[in-house]
Specification:
Layout: H1 8-38, H2 43-59, H3 61-92, H4 97-125, H5 133-162, H6 164-184, H7 200-205, H8 208-232, H9 238-246, E1 247-248, H10 259-280, H11 287-313, E2 318-319, H12 321-348, H13 354-376, H14 384-416
Parallel strand pairs: 1-2
The chain binds phenylalanine (PHE).
């Protein structure tokens, strides 16, 4: 019984990350609106800044991980990251352009230091009970989505009652909670924060050709993931403008952002149960097929929105149900694809390059986020239905090579399972 229990450190990291994600998603919720309405940026300019910021947030973990490894250690990296984020929220809340950009830089640097290292710590908690690690990450992912779910509600209330500044600044309070949890209960993550040398048994067992083929497989997975996030990151950008301008609703547009994380929280256990049920019947889809499903689901969500545009949403307003259900379907897509990507990196990355390839996974999010901002620049240069259709086609164009590659990915996974696995 005792061995099935999760380490208490998991809950420390759960709440540290919950409040960090709360602050991240609270500012993401109103960022595009703020740029458009308060700073008077046009939609394409909003996209350039939004894309650059999202790219920064997910490229910087590459350096955040390195800094923790080489200089700071995990604890100091997480604390420094948290402090930078807290300052970033305060600076962002000063409603003027130089402060706006300075705030974004602080936030991206802070989250680049905090996020990858908290995730690594979660993995490290399970060094002596790897069989519980996936479940641990699932619980941790719930924390992420709880933060993402609560924040649009509170931030939209603050924005509509007190204005942009207090809404942005409120997240500094969330970062104080995040830091306090991490510092006060730090003894529970002390062991996980100690670096151990990579297990070299696996490294020796791996031929250079095999290592190369695994890295190539992962690069292909990253390309697919990039397109997925290109579509996903419309949620905090063009979807907000669609909610504001083209849906029949009186609620603040950013409040629609609750449906995706809520979908993740409610549907994750359902999907896990479905996979288990299929597994018992020997019919569980393979990892690449699950990723393919993720891409196809998001294509369906965008196809639905294209239809909603054609049937009235391009020029006028349509029922808010379209947007709500599109978000729920995207949530299903996220839980089919995102954990699979992470577990593939864990499974396939040659031990010597594991850190770098984890950074590669984050970089696929960064590039997807950047392209989301770039492509969103077309939002008001064509009918909305054509924009949604364009994203649908990009997703389908990705699904085709992915479906051709599933066999190759499956083979690489199968080979990786015949050598001793490190960690
Ligand atoms: N919703 C996830 C989060 O904010 C998105 C994500 C997945 C980010 C994987 C990084 C890595 O954490």
């Amino acid at each position: 019984m005792v061995s099935r229990r999760h380490p208490p450190g998991l809950y420390v990291l759960f709440f540290t990350e919950l409040w960090e994600r709360y602050s991240f998603y609270s500012m993401m919720a109103i960022l595009s609106l703020y740029m458009n309405e308060a700073l008077q940026f046009d939609v394409a300019h909003v996209g350039r800044v939004y894309g650059a910021y999202t790219a920064g947030v997910y490229f910087l973990p590459l350096f955040g991980g390195l800094l923790a490894d080489r200089v700071l250690g995990f604890n100091r990296a997480v604390i420094a990251g948290g402090v930078l984020m807290m300052l970033g929220h305060l600076v962002l809340g000063v409603e003027s352009l130089p402060f706006f950009y300075a705030g974004l830089v602080l936030l991206a640097c802070g989250s680049g230091l905090l996020k990858p290292n908290v995730s690594t710590l979660v993995g490290n908690l399970y060094r002596d009970r790897p069989e519980l690690r996936d479940q641990g990450f699932n619980i941790f992912y719930m924390g992420i989505n709880l933060g993402a779910f609560i924040s649009p509600l509170t931030v939209s209330w603050l924005r509509t009652h007190y204005g942009w500044g207090p809404a942005f600044m409120s997240a500094a309070g969330a970062m104080v909670i995040s830091l306090l949890v991490f510092i006060v209960f730090n003894r529970h993550v002390a062991d996980a924060a100690v670096k151990v040398e990579e297990n070299s048994v696996e490294a020796r067992a791996l031929s250079p050709e095999e290592a190369r083929s695994r890295v190539l497989t992962l690069v292909a997975v990253f390309a697919i993931s990039m397109v997925f996030w290109l579509a996903f990151y419309q949620i905090f950008y063009t979807f907000t403008f669609w909610a504001r301008d083209n849906t029949l609703t009186t609620i603040p547009p950013e409040r629609f952002q609750v449906f995706e994380p809520l979908g993740v929280i409610l549907l994750s256990p359902v999907l896990v149960a479905v996979w288990r049920w299929l597994q018992r019947r020997n019919a569980e889809p393979s990892t690449p097929v699950k990723m393919l499903l993720g891409v196809v689901l998001v294509a369906i969500a965008f196809g639905m929105l294209a239809y909603a545009g054609m049937t009235g949403g391009d020029a006028g307003r349509v029922s808010a149900q379209w947007l709500i259900w599109a978000n729920v379907i995207i949530a299903l897509g996220e839980i089919s694809l995102s954990p699979m990507g992470l577990s593939l990196v864990n499974m396939l990355a040659p031990p010597r390059n594991r850190g770098l390839l984890m950074g590669g996974w984050f970089a696929s999010l960064a590039t997807g986020g950047y392209l989301a901002g770039y492509i969103g620049g077309y939002w008001d240069r064509m009918p909305h239905s054509r924009f949604f259709l364009m994203v649908t086609l990009i997703l389908i164009a990705t699904a085709v090579p992915l479906s051709l590659m599933t066999l190759q990915i499956k083979r690489t996974i199968a080979r990786s399972q015949t050598v001793p696995v490190g960690q």
